[in-house]
Amino acid sequence: MAIEKLIWLIPLPPVLAFALIVLFTNKNKALSHSVAIGAAFLSWLGAMYVFLSALGVEHFGEHPYESSINWLPTGETWLKIGVLIDPLSATVLFFVAWTVLMIFLYSVGYHNFGQPAGDHDHKGLPPHGATEHGHAVLSIEPMYSRFFAFISLFAFGMLTLVVSDNLLTMFVGWEIMGLCSYLLIGFWFGKESARNAAIKAFMTTRIGDVFMLLGISYLYSTTGTLSFRAIFTVEILHTLATIPSGVFGLSAAGLIGLLLFIGTVGKSAQFPLHVWLPDAMEGPTPVSAMIHAATMVSAGVYAVIRMYPLISLDEKTMTVVAFIGAFTAIFAATIAVAQNDIKRVLAYSTISQLGFMIAALGIHAYIAAVFHLVTHAFFKALLFLGSGSVIHGMEHGVLHTGNHKVDPQDMFNMGGLKNKMPITFWTFLIGGFALSGFPLITAGFWSKDEILADAWGHGHMIIFFTLAVAAFMTAFYTMRQITLTFLGEARTPEAEHAHETPWTMTVPLIILSGFAIGYGWFGIPEHFPVLGGLVPNWFHEFVGGTLAEHPEAVEFSWVPLGVSLFVAFVGLLCGWLMYRNVKSAAEDVFQISFLKNKYYFDELYDFLFVKPIYWFSENVVYKFMDMTVINGILHLFGPSTGGIGSTIRNYFDLPIINRLIGDGSADVTYWFGGKLTRIQSGRIQQYLVLSLTALFVIGGLIYFFLLA
Amino acid sequence: MNFPILSVITFLPFAAGMLMLAMPATRKNEVRAVALATAVIDLILSAWVYLQYWLGDMSGYQFIEQYRWLPALGISLKFGVDGMSAPLVLLTGIVMFTGVLISWGDDDPHVMAGIQDRPREFFAFLFLLAGGVFGVFVSLDLFMLFFFYEIAVFPMYLLIAIWGWAKTREYAAMKLTLYLFIGSVVALVGALVMYWTQYQNTGILSFDMIQMESAGFSSAFQYAWFLPVFFGFAVLGGIWPFHNWSPDGHVAAPTAVSMFHAGVLMKLGAFAALRVGIMLLPEGAKQWSWLVMTFAAIAVVYGAYIAFVQTDLKYMIGFSSVSHMGLVVLGVSTLNHNGLVGAGVQMFSHGVMTALFFAITGMIYDRAHTRMIPELGGVAKVMPFATIGFIIGGLVSMGMPGFSGFVAEFPIFMGVWGRQWLVAVVASISIVITAAYIMLAIRKVFFSDMPEKLVGHISPITALDKVAISTLCFFMIVIGIFPAVMVPMIEKGVENVLRLLGGA
Question: Rounded to two decimals, what is the model's pTM?
Fold first, then answer.
């Protein structure tokens, strides 16, 4: 059927764009971005067609689109690579295609397309501005084409991951994204902070990847397959659930699930592998949006949701998942409160919101987790692009005043941007309200409310209260951010001269804010007062079909709804009240160094892991083992061989062989010769006597021995 | 086909070496031209062998040639390739070709790239080495295998001691030679015992390895002789704790010799250990695989840890080779399908990858006159092409999907988990550390700011260098994206090994 072939084609345009830009069009900036955006658009078209067709299929969960070919031969069977679109991947594909296209479009404006080349710009550093007709203006990114090449590859990785039907190709996409995050976070490689952040991101996620690889190895050696549909059969799941793994009393399914989950912990920046995500802000803002919404972190959550039938088999693993998620949600929220960098606040909010999803999954709230994944992707992409727009506007101000010491990302340098950048303000407000869970109209409310309702409904009280507090803090810091950035008076001259951004940046904002509101209406619970049932709960019906057993919706209860409303309203109100009159960072009560320094986790890890590894490698493995022991033994061979040699020489060769046998035989001969000289006297008579004696002796001997 | 292609591949480098020695020493460019022509012919022929094998039914030994040599003792010159050795023949062709390219030399006295000093002798010895390597990979006769093995080791000494890095070349050359000769002597004793035992068992006096597969060695015999034979060869594969000659040798060797050393010479050890140790003594292999696996796992992690703290780029790559060759032996030690297939691919992949690493390191050293990572920086601006090459090599090294390293490491880990999950867990530490040292080196050497004293001294690489880098990258990417160009062939070779192991 044609649609299966189409699914194969969805990830391909971006990778072709990558190749085209790298090989041919990199000199031409307009052509490069056209190729990249055109490719993203083709993928988008394909994704939309597949998604809409999927909507029309009855019982789509049981009859998904799938097709596969052989790729890496192992054993009797080839490791197949294939594509699978079921309700889950169709849903994810939908938001990925949209956000990717929007981010691509936005990047054109963000990298100042159409502006002149900078006066002093270098490759590897952000553009510093140019002079045109005596005015300071923004300058175009010197590595403009390269950016579109990398980001296309990034999109390819994500699309591959989403459409794959097995863990192998999923892992391939997963690793490609790891590589792209490295390349793009370190995009401005001229900055040392960017180089370090790139390595940190790659290494931290890599730690998770290793566990994931081990999980895959375990799974494959137990079941002989990596295909999702093959693993999620009743027999194989039953086998996995009953084999003990021998570790922590987990079943095989539990251990595999745990290992795969650690991969997600790395990729989705969950505690304790969360440290890379805030530093990833070093990349250009569209990259942040890519990582935080469209691709990387969503991929981590998607992977664990994808493996839910396996992971959910072992309650111990599920408990770990739920608690890691809930802890991360509240932990990251507390850090976000104390950040002053507009992007860092969002970065921690991402970590926190991902915690919500993970926690939801851990308490078997499968649909709520998927729902929050989708709504979060839309509003977080919106917020990141909005923050990029704000920074861009501030850079305008910085160029105007010429004071380059002003950090265009510090919220305390902003204020009053509402009137300067109205489109950015209104769209950011929508995104912020969605993040806070502003009731009824925003998508974030519906998805977050569903998580809380599930936690309450299934009696997970600790999770429920933790998430409720985290939600309160979310509303609070979001309003803090909005108030500091947009409301009140401009706190610096730069903020006064900020400027609205071009249409390529604002149009994506407007479209995404449409989703940040509208998407929630497709998932309103049936039993919700007044609104329930007005729009059918499409999301629950559709995504629920992915699982073999359609999950039941929880009973409606006023408690979680009340809590949900309370935390959103009160949090927003507190944020506004506390920050509407704040003039500088000194007046902020949350400038606590413990929070600002993120609980010193970077320092802790440096102390606990990085330094000891250096020390261990340098001193134990290299200096002690290799240079001292092994090389020492080797170098002992020389002296010891010499020692053996001289021992033999001195105690055997010289005295015995040389002295006794060699020289000895000569000495004996000499001594014997000396004795024999006595008979050479010169007297004839004596010779005659000797001759006669010899004659008789020899004659006698001959007689006795030969004749007788 | 009656054309003796394997003999031509093997003996052409010897003949070319003799021809070069007969040429006047002053005719450097003519010598280089002869070297390049020979390398190109050998590359084409080895690629032809590979393709013919791949396009055919890929079964058993092919291109078999046999000439009587010393029939009284059962020694004959018997050549042939199977699925395990055909990729290695191709690998040798590739390394030979690229090694000649990057040794071409630049007459600019500031650059000192390639080989300026006595290129005639250099290429002659290099080709002696190459011919020996080809000989080992294609020999089906145990005696001939040893014969070529020794031929391959001998020129290494001269190449390192004469053209090497002045500071350590004599030490390193001596260390390397002693190690390899001791290893091969131990293995030779084992081989002679096998030869006589076969005669006692069957009455056949022969060094033919296919014959020896059915020599009926008793279990006790195999248990006793597996270790000397396997480890005797594996010394050349850099097995821990007999790896120490290898990084020292790399550092002291001139660039092209480093490429040969890491690229193919270490494969020689692993390949011979597999062919003689495991295939002729399968019972012994089963008995001792736990020990081999332990040593290999140690090598994997140990090499990575040491590479992590090296400040000399060549030492770093040298120890990373110990780690990666450890993965080969680890894959071999699983004695299962996945592990062996992974090991086969890893041999090829690592060969191409380290050849690339050493080639680029050589280019940097020739220009910056230092290999110390802390003293380098900003190379990307002047040598963007080499930078991309090094990054691709790095990605292969850390097992990134889409490159050959992934196709190799993924099955190895699958195979190891199937045998002993704990070893897989331990070995996986290396994945993280490998990524760390590669990333850190790339950051410092290529992307940090260029130190003052290097500014203006680093010249761009030559067109020949670019051809060499592109050739090496080509193979890593093609295998990464289309594993089917190599994996099915290696699978056939592995099937044969598994058959001897009794379907284990």
Answer: 0.81
